[in-house]
Write a structure and sequence with these properties.
By secondary structure, the protein is α+β, with helices and mostly antiparallel strands. It has 3 domains: about 80 residues, TATA-Binding Protein; about 160 residues, Ribonuclease H-like superfamily/Ribonuclease H (Nucleotidyltransferase, domain 5), CATH 3.30.420.10; about 50 residues. About 45% of the residues lie in helices and about 20% in strands. Strands 2-3-4-1-5 form a 5-stranded antiparallel beta sheet, covered by helices on one side. Strand 9, helix 8 and strand 10 form a beta-alpha-beta unit. The N and C termini lie far apart (about 55 Å). About 5% of the residues have low confidence.
């Protein structure tokens, strides 16, 4: 998808500042910059014309179209080389609604807990978050997240829950990962709704399981969230989900730092060979039982760590 339109000078200045961390080394002729943000390439020309190219070009460009309308009272009708269905257009509009969204991190990391967070973002706070650069945590550096999240949590209502490794290891045999995630999303969403009578238009979860399964997973919970909108790539389309994503990541990184400090060992993220090597160091220094406190022992990494310890 390619979307092109012309921006005002004040929006041009904002774009230059916003996309600076994502600049590409090579700039096309007559362009001020070319940047790549996830799956979208953004090129701003000296003339003021801006071009968005990529799968999520409509979502990325919609941020600046809304800025033009709000700051300059301009209605932009961008040129697009892909015809969008009404369903896709409606999804884009979720970005500008009062929403509650939730997201989680840590489910793919051997070390560290699972952190789930829900946030409420009103229309009044959308510009504040977009200027900070809030988006899916997987598209931001950890340094950026550590810098912006303290500003976010001072202003944005949220509820978060940390599932420790001990708790995960205790329950995992009886609960699959999707059920664990569903229960935790339900927990933080119901907790957030208790804090205030929020004026929201929808509750959004980045879809990780079919809606029927989600409601089946939480049917035994004392309190159950209702009327959830399940969306794929929700972090790119609903800013409350993106805010929940970065807050979750911030908390997760803090927990990883606590583990490193307590063990005196550097803890890599993910589930790679580097993770196995760190696991071997932990077992040799503290014993195998220590993994139950700092890792998800159901992961295949545990078996590889045990085998590496036997061979060494």
């Amino acid at each position: 998808m390619t979307i092109v339109f012309k921006v005002s000078d004040n929006i041009k200045a904002r774009m230059i500042k916003f996309y600076q961390p994502f600049y590409r080394e090579k700039t096309p002729p007559y362009a001020i910059f070319q940047a790549q943000n996830a799956d979208v390439i953004i090129t701003l020309y000296e003339s003021g014309k801006v071009m968005f190219q990529g799968i999520s070009a409509d979502i990325e460009s919609s941020i600046w179209i809304e800025q033009e309308k709000k700051l300059n009272n301009r209605d932009i009708n961008p040129q697009s080389k892909e015809k969008k269905s009404n369903k896709e257009i409606n999804k884009k509009q979720f970005f500008y609604e009062n929403t509650i969204g939730s997201d989680e991190v840590g489910t793919g990391d051997y070390f560290g807990p699972i952190v789930v967070c829900a946030t409420y973002v009103s229309k009044d706070n959308i510009e504040f978050l977009t200027e900070l650069g809030v988006r899916d945590s997987k598209k931001l550096t950890d340094d950026k997240i550590i810098d912006i999240v303290p500003k976010i949590i001072e202003r944005i209502p949220y509820s978060a829950f940390v599932l420790t490794n001990e708790m995960y290891n205790k329950f995992h045999d009886n609960l699959n990962m999707n059920k664990i995630k569903a229960i935790l999303h339900n927990k933080v969403l119901t907790s957030l709704l208790k804090k205030d009578n929020y004026d929201y238009q929808r509750i959004v979860i980045d879809q990780f399981t079919p809606p029927k399964n989600f409601y089946d997973y939480i049917k035994e919970s004392k309190e159950q969230i209702k009327n959830v909108t399940f969306m794929t790539k929700a972090e790119d389309q609903v800013i409350s989900v993106a805010a929940a994503s970065v807050i979750s990541r911030y908390i997760f990184l803090g927990k990883i730092k606590e583990i490193e400090n307590s063990l005196g060992i550097s803890i890599p993220l993910g589930a790679s060979n580097l993770v196995d090597e760190a696991g071997v160091k932990i077992v040799k220094k503290f014993g195998k039982e220590k993994l139950n406190e700092v890792a998800k022992i159901s992961f295949k990494n545990t078996a590889k760590i045990e085998l590496m310890c036997k061979k060494s």
